[in-house]
Design goal:
CATH topology: Glutamine Phosphoribosylpyrophosphate, subunit 1, domain 1
Structural class: alpha+beta
Strand order of the largest sheet: 1-15-14-2-8-9-3-4-5
Number of strands: 15
Largest sheet: 9 strands, mixed
Number of helices: 9
Radius of gyration: 19 Å
Order of helices and strands: HEEHHEEHEHHEEEEEEHHHEEEE
CATH architecture: 4-Layer Sandwich
Oligomer: single chain
CATH class: Alpha Beta
Strand content: 15-25%
Bound molecules: glycine
Length: 343
């Protein structure tokens, strides 16, 4: 595996815009350095598998390997110390969607999302009742807490006085004290200055887009959300159009970053719609990111976009650079590409 990673590192390119031709289909692209997920997705695609299978099996690798500690079990404990999972899968051929939010005690979030899509007429199940659905579908119920997530939570709660947290306009002062909190009567309605550090290890998500040999597009995400989130919080990742979006007639997109802000702008949907209007994937991703930045100038996030002809690109904000992984049949190995962020 070290050898494969080395090959990937050799293939890092700083790109402004990736130009590809239509010979690079099938193709899979993945947010961040999650090359193992991309390798799995590519294995599925090159064996003639569907884009949906590639997304599900690729994201599953990250759920099992706990990519960056921000995907899968044992990461991002909430204020009660529990890890809960959000995931989405979207079929660009049928425009069908399956999603789960705040999924408890089930490790395979993206597969449960796929069951929502394929075994129900619904699109989105959440919380304890999503768990009940998963158990009914044959998934194993088990704790998502690990020794590491327990220690992370104990430090936050016992040594750091519950800092940082996501509360505002409550008492006692959440910037100094733990809860329970109650409402503060007189407060100024203004944008909060967050004391939560948003970075790769906090609001990270695996987002994937794939096109299979039939030209079908699929996209998906999986994450354990934001560290020390308020129990019940769901971020951008499972929201169709926000975490990911796919439409065979255009392509697909996926997003990662500060989900509480990003879900207000449906950046994946916007990127796909920009490509529909003729924008390149890079420009489409930039437009989606800049739309958010116009309102939240310090937000951290990124969008990857893949057109149905195989062109792809990405844009990011609030970091120096953003890596994403690509594998198609023009490359001997996966390639980690890096874009310079807009701010
Ligand atoms: N982007 C992942 C989250 O904020 O939940």
């Amino acid at each position: 595996m070290k050898y494969i990673f080395f090959i990937g590192l050799l293939n890092i390119f700083l790109i402004g815009q990736a130009i590809c031709d239509d010979k690079n289909i099938p193709i899979a692209i993945t947010t961040w350095w999650f090359y193992n997920a991309t390798i799995k997705a590519w294995d599925v695609l090159k064996e003639g598998g569907t884009a949906l299978d590639a997304i599900e099996q690729g994201a599953t690798v990250c759920e099992v390997q706990q990519c960056d500690g921000t995907v899968g079990y044992g990461g991002s404990p909430d204020e009660d110390g529990e890890t809960t999972l959000d995931a989405l899968i979207m079929d660009g051929k049928t425009m069908n969607v399956g999603a789960v939010g705040a999924l408890r005690r089930i490790k395979s979030a993206i597969s449960v999302a796929r069951h929502v899509m394929e075994r129900t007429k619904h699109s989105f199940l959440v919380g304890e009742l999503a768990t009940q659905f998963a158990v009914q579908m044959g998934f194993k119920e088990e704790p998502l807490t690990t020794q590491q997530s327990k220690q992370m939570w104990m430090k936050w709660h016992n040594e750091d006085n519950c800092q940082p947290n996501f509360w505002m306009n409550v008492k006692p002062d959440p910037s100094k004290y733990c809860g329970p909190y109650s409402t503060l009567d007189n407060f100024r309605r203004e944008s909060p200055a967050s004391n939560v550090k948003v970075d790769r290890y906090n609001h990270d998500t695996i987002g994937m887009v794939a096109i299979d040999g039939n030209g079908d597009v699929a996209a998906g995400t999986s994450t354990n959300g934001a560290r020390f989130k308020i129990p019940g919080r769901i971020g951008d990742s499972p929201i169709p159009g926000s975490g990911a979006y796919a439409d065979n007639s255009v392509g697909g997109a996926a997003a990662t970053g500060d989900g509480d802000v990003m879900l207000r702008f449906l950046p994946s949907f916007l990127a796909v719609e920009e490509m529909r209007r003729g924008a390149t994937p890079t420009d489409a991703a930039r437009t989606a990111v800049l739309r958010i930045a116009a309102h939240y100038e310090d937000f951290m996030g990124a969008v990857v976009a893949l057109k149905n002809d195989g062109q792809y690109g990405a844009a990011c904000h609030g970091m120096d650079t953003f890596p994403f992984v690509v594998q198609d049949n023009t490359k001997e190995s996966f390639r980690v590409e890096t874009v310079q962020c807009l701010k």
